[in-house]
Structure formats: C-alpha cells, structure tokens
Amino acid sequence: MPQLPTRPRVTRVRLVTLVAASALAVGGTAGLAVTPAHAASNSVVISAVYGGGGNSGAKFQNDYIELYNRGSSAIDLSGWTVTYYSSGGNSGGTTSLTGSVAPGAHFLVQEGAGTGSASPLPTPDASGTLNMSASKGSVVLRQNDTTIDTVGYGAVESSYVEGSSAPGMSNTTADSRTKGCFDTDDNAKDFVSAGPNPLNSAAPVGVCGTDGSTQPPPTGTPSTIEQIQGTSFKSPLTGEQVKDVRGVVTAVNGSAGFWIQSTTPDDDPRTSEGLYVYGGAGMVKVGDDLTVAGKVTEYRPGGVDNGNLTTTELGSPNIQVNSSGNELPTAVEIGSAGHVPPAQTVEKGDPGNVETAGLTLGPATNALDFWESMEGMRIQETDAKAVGPTETSYGETPIVPANTKDVTWTPDGGVLYRSYDTPNAMRLILSDALLPKDSIAPANTGDSYAGVTAGVLDYNFGNFTLMATRAGTHQSGGTTRDVAQPATKKQASVATFNVENLAPSDPQTKFDRLAGQITTNLAAPDVLAIEEIQDNTGATDDGTVDSTQTTDKLIAAIKAAGGPSYQAKWIDPVNDEDGGQPGGNIRSVFLYRTDRGMTFVDKPGGTSTNSVAVTGTGPWASVNYSPGRIDPTNTAWDDSRKPLVGEFLWQGKPLFVVANHFNSKGGDDGIMGRYQPPQRSSEVQRHAQATLVRGFVDELLTANKHANIVVLGDLNDFNFSKTANIVKGSGKTAMTDLIDTLPANERYSYDYQGNSQVLDQLLVSPALAKNYDYQVVHTNSQFYDQDSDHDPQVVKLAVH
C-alpha cells in the first residue's frame, strides 16, 4: 500500500471532456465525438428557441430564436449568424444578424412562418426564413464562423448539442433558459419547455428566464486577482461577490472552467497572479482578455472533511471578453533564481491547520507557501526529471527541475525519502489532462522531458500539479530492471513480493509477467512470501475465502516461464476480516520449491483464529502449527492481514519464516496537506502489530538463541520508522533489517508520488546475519509498465 491512501480517481479535471488550449501548443480531443468547441463570446447566449410558428394550435405565426446578453457591455452583432440544423445534423439555412444587443437585453430573430393563422411576434430585431422543427433540431450561434453557443432540443442525433439535449418542443411550447439565463453548457440543465414568450430589445433589461428572473449587470467589490488570492492559504474575500476582475485566459479545462492570469502583477511575492474560474469555459479561449465577475469560493478536492488544501476559485462567472489573441503572461521558471522551492521544509514550526492558523505565506522558506503563492499561475520547468514512473491510467508523472539540489538521488535518478525531515517538497505532479491523449510519453524514474514543460499550477488530492499545456521531449534515462544471481547449492534463497491484489480474473499477462519476475529477476527463490493473494473470486464479495485458483494459476505460469514446480501454503482468512479490497480476502502465501533441499514442515491445526505457539527448546525449538498465525484474534489485527508463520527445513536445518502485511497508511495526513506537520494516525495499529511479531520472535530466540528466523513482507512503514525499530528489537537478540545494510541511496522498494521509499522489509535473526547476500530487485517501482507497485527482495542465506 502507498504512503497515503490511494486518492479517488475523479478530480475536477476528470469530470469533463477535456479540450486543451495553449498559445504554445494547441490541443484538442482525440478520438472522441464531441460538440464543436466554443470560443470567444461576449456573454451572448441563445435564450429561447421556438419551431412551431404557424402550425396547428400555435400561439405565434413565426418560428423564432431569442438571444440574451449576460455581460455588462453592448455587443455589436455584425458578422454574427444563427444556423438551424435538423436532428440528423443537416443544415437548414443561416440568418445573418446586424445591430447590437445591450447589456441585460434581448434580441429577437424572427424566422419562417407557418400556414396557419396566429398572432405576430413582437417587433423582431432581425429576420430570416428558417423553417425549424417544432420537436427536435439544433440552433448554432456563431461569430465570424466561430461557435458561440449551441442549443440542441429533442432527441437530436447530431453533435450540435451541449451536454444532453434540451426538452423536445411542440406547436404550443418553446424551449427557454431557466432562471437568470445561466449557462452551464448542458442544454438539458439550462432549458425547460414552456409556453412561448418571445422577448425583443424592447423587453425589460436584466429580465431573463422562464420565471422572469432578473440578472442585473455585474455587482460586487472591484477586485484584482492578487486581492482575491491574498497573502495566506485562503482568500480574504471568500464568499464575497467581486467584479472587474481582469486577466488573460491561460488554459481551458474542458467545459468545467478556465484559468486567468493578471498582466499587471503586483510586487508582493506572496500573492498569486493566477485564478481558476469555475464555469463559462464555453465562452472563452486561450489568449482572451477578460473582465469577470463572480463569487469567491474555496474548492477542496475530495470533500470538505479531508486534509487537502483548498483552491481559490471564482464561481458563477459573468464574463466579458475585451479582446482575443493576446500574448500570455511569461511562465515562472521553477528552479531559476528566486523561484527555487525549499526542498526539505514543507512548513516551519507546528502550525496545525495552516488554513486557520493565521499564517502569512513565506514562499522563500516554506515549500507549501512557495507553491500556494503561485496557485493558478503559468509555470514551467526546463529539462524536467521524472522521479517516479508515469501512472498511465491518469497521465500523471512526478517531476522535479533538472537542477534540483539538497536531495539524495537514487542510482536510477529518483529522490530518496530518507526521513520524516526530508519530504522532497520540490516535487510536482505533471498532468496531461489538458492535452490530447498520449501527448506526453510515459516515463520511468530517471527519464526526463527535454526542453520546456509548461502549464498552470493547480492542486489535486494532496499534491500541487502542473497542468501541462506544453510538454518537453521525452528522453530515456536508461533505467533497467534488476536481475538477481541464483543462489549457490549451499545457500537458501528467501524472498518477499507484494503482487498487488492478484486474482484469477486478472489478465493472463499479469500472471505471466509476475512469473517472469519470479523465475528470472528473483532467480526462482527457494521460499517466496507473497502478499496480496486474493480469493478465487477476487473482489466479488460472495463469501468465498479459498485462494487455490489464484495460487494454482501463478504456479502454472511460473512453470510455463521455465521456473520450478512450486507448492503453496497459506491459511484462509475469515471472510471480510483481513482488510484490503472489499471481497478480495487478501492474504500472505508461501510458495516453496523442494528440488534444492527446501522442505516445508507441515503441522496441521493452524486456522484463521487460533494462534501459533513455540514448543521445545534448544535445537528442538519448534512451533505447534505450520502454517500458523500470530495471535490472530488480537485487536491489533482488526481489519488487517495476520502474519503467516512457516517452519521449513533447509538441507535438514530448521528455518522459520514469518510473512507479514501490516495495515496500510490510510488516514494519515499528506505531506503537502493543510495539517502541518502531518499526523500519522495509522502508526498506532502498526506499532501494536510489530510488537506482537517481535514477541513471537523473542519467544523463538528464548527457546533457541541460535534459531534461524526470517521476518519479511510489506510492513507498510519506513525502515527508519518506529514500526521497523520494534520488529528489529535491540541488544543481542536484535534482528538485522537488511535494507539498512545497503548504501543509503539504495534503500527503497516503492515509489509514492515521486518519493522513493521503503515499505517492504526483510529482517534476519542473529544466526543468519553472519553470512548473507541481499538485494532489493527493482523490477516495478520505477517503471510505468509495472506488474505490481512493489519491488521484490531476496536474500541468500547460509543456514546452520
């Protein structure tokens, strides 16, 4: 499991179909049938459509299209048109518009007449001859061939619709926008069907919507972006209505919103010049200079109660486009003079909740403040280095500037999380969400993106994120998978490997690739402790607990890969009591081979609820159950995996192996969250678990101080943690945590958000610590095409 719980894989960005936009690299959707992208708008929307004019029962003789100006300036309609499309997408003609529409005013376009007798429309502001369907079709408003607004009504089959279709109409009903003529870019949400009520330029100003709601010109306190952002973690204007907010659009987030940045920055390094505007994305394009009004809000990804920071936003915007095609503000070069994030100081002192502690940002000394002071701004990195693999499902890669200092680099180009005081807070998550699919090549740890990688700085689920609008050229760092040397005839090889929720329903390719790692990269160890073996039906919560199908499928794949014939031992858990993926019933399993002198000492009687115990003394020290579990009913193991004990004989000599998978770090505060310093609440249970495991080891060593004991697995904690120290013990009976014997920069088995770290450990008793050959076999944690998120480890032992 990761250092923190896996975040929900839905973000503000992922809720929408994404349309990339950048003055440097223009993107669009790839392989998707989408509504034509909206562009420059002066807040003019289609406020009503009616196609039943002159038909039987119709109130009015003519069809009509009604416009409304939501902005605060008059709009010249020269060059503007309205086009009607049938439900299948065929054009039914175009009407050119002239004149202007005042702020808060309507503009009525009269279209074709029916043959029946009915009342004339109010005096139209423009006229055409379009014959529109009374039930389903589309109307598109354009300015010089650029789409401004689209309304699809009824069950339209074409792409001329925003979101879902507005209701179908009839001879006696029109589709009109709802309260205030707000525009969410979803026709189904924005329109209702009601009796036709055409409004022309003589209608009351500021009145729009089926309920006669008013939308007066923008009100609020005149504000700059810098005043909205303020000098702390939350806006001083939260909840207030502001207006006259000026900025240039720097990136568009599909239909959800967009970022603007001031072109007249202040001299205060604490105040960001960027701001996210939630809504109205269909009205703007990159390079538009805007004047915006709206309500200042704070958005917390994941919900109000989690530890994430908030992002300052401007909601329910009223947008006026002043000009288009403007040059974008220069992106801040991260890593350049004056813009170097403090790598190892997230937040000085002990402020607790930084959003309520009354702090003023100190970007020169605190990494959290450094990034917060540029929230929503354009930033870039040159020759950015990937310090973790790309998570390809979400297009996210942890990166740092090429000239990063004050870190411990791993041999393959990652950065080491070597203590709680070295958080490596200069890391960013590079996201491709604003770019077309596959625009950014996936990276392994140690790869780089040559040239400029630029975009806007956002915050999502515990991490500051570079929402890229331009990416550098991918360059391989040459990182390759490790291969361990086979054990000699006299060496017993023992390994641990978390295979990440392995179930029979997983693709055969996963089994085959894992088998290749076990056979080739681990050199087919004599004993393999595997964590996260699921039951026969995987995550289906149907009461199944047996995992024979899972282990059989893996064993067969190993054999097919040229490996030995392994046998398996485990104890089925009580259904749904060992944590992990609901219904999966994950457990630890021993795989072992007998062709080199390893045998399993089978002592029946161990169950999911009874406890293994030490029997005998001296060379006769043993256990009552093999396989067995350590105190499985102890509350320390609630909703968590129980350790699996196995007694083996290596060429006739006893060897005790304890396979572990401690409880996850779910619930801990994030490194870059609002609570500083982060609290690690999940440690309490792991400390209790470590104490029980250490107690069992002490019992064995008391019975026989020369006992050969291996404690291994996913301890879900760092090698420098109290959890690890409890298991190690002290004095003459201290176990050796073998990862501590490696050079400092090689101590990692996992990568979480760009921090190379230890979660898996392999410890040996004093008798085995005299002669061994140990290796973390890096086959997964550094690679985007990983088969598990953990690296396996193997030790070759001289068992006496």
UniProtKB/TrEMBL annotation:
InterPro entries xrefs: Endo/exonu/phosph_ase_sf (IPR036691), Endo/exonuclease/phosphatase (IPR005135), Lamin_tail_dom (IPR001322), Lamin_tail_dom_sf (IPR036415)
Keyword Transmembrane helix listed: no
Gene3D superfamilies: Endonuclease/exonuclease/phosphatase
Keyword list, A-Z: Endonuclease, Hydrolase, Nuclease, Signal
Source organism superkingdom: Bacteria
Keyword Nuclease: yes
Signal peptide: 1-39
Ranges of residues in domain LTD: 35-155
Xref: Pfam families: Exo_endo_phos_3, LTD
Entry's Gene Ontology molecular function annotations: endonuclease activity
PANTHER family: ENDONUCLEASE/EXONUCLEASE/PHOSPHATASE FAMILY PROTEIN (AFU_ORTHOLOGUE AFUA_3G09210), ENDONUCLEASE_EXONUCLEASE_PHOSPHATASE FAMILY PROTEIN (AFU_ORTHOLOGUE AFUA_3G09210)
The name this protein goes by in its record: Endonuclease
Organism expressing this protein natively: Flexivirga endophytica
